Write the structure tokens for this entry.
Amino acid sequence: MDQRIIGKFIAELRHKDNMTQEKLGQKLGVTNKTISRWENGNYMPDIEMLKMLSEVFQVSINELLCGKKLTDADFRKKADENIIDVYQNNTFTLKEQSAFWKRNWLKSHIALMIFCALMTIGLFVWAWCASIPWLSGLCPLLFLAVYAVLRNRMIIYIEDKIYSRKECRTNRQA
């Protein structure tokens, strides 16, 4: 998969439809500079844009990724090659994706985590001052339980984002 070839193919399809970069950009909701960058091979359209381009030009995403119209015989072979190529050239590794979604979850839930930690510390101090030793001994266990629940929720969130498990669950329920 070569960005320059894909860009030339997009330009070719656009010219064939007598469309300017600005007009195509308006149809897709992007600027004419973005269209220019795609056509020059500087950038690659993301998957949503590839889908929209395929609809505008009445070609398959597979043909867009190949940079040419395909015969029926070539279509299946090129589809397999494109899938392998996309996975091999994925911008982010699984570890990087996991780290990104973990940071995202932590940013969203930092206040909750601080609140839970402060409540546990407050309960510990109160139990200590009120001379309830069994409750002060229970506080570290309570903190570990809250931590385990929050960590589990974070892992589920990360897996849902990386593997789109929600879609799988929805398909199973239907």
